[in-house]
Amino acid sequence: MKFVSIRVITGDVARLVAFYERATGARAEWATDDFAELRTAGATLAVASTRTVPLFAPDSARPADNHSVITEFLVDDVDRVHQDLSGFVTDFVAGPTTMPWGNRSLLLRDPDGNLVNFFTPVTEAARAKFGR
User: How far is CA 128 from CA 94, 102, 124, 125, in A?
Assistant: First the structure.
């Protein structure tokens, strides 16, 4: 098995895609007005309209209603990312903080309120885990 992507359902695909393009530097590939993907070296972030939900199962997903998932991006310098996103991101949950497991993390919310974590491994063990 290979983990390939995570999909975020939204009421405004263009707005959310624009946010993630700016926040990550990745460019979206649009399949339709209702579906785009931002591909990174590790996985793909898919963004889909609420109009796609009935194709899977009606009422199976609701936009802007995530209270349990954090989408994470490994970056070279989380402090630089924080600086670059200041003035753009409106909801920083926690500024750069070194976690007990060795990652320096920046937690924020995307325009739909979904949690997003940018992190950089800073301890020897964390760097080894991510091949850095």
Answer: 25, 11, 6, 5
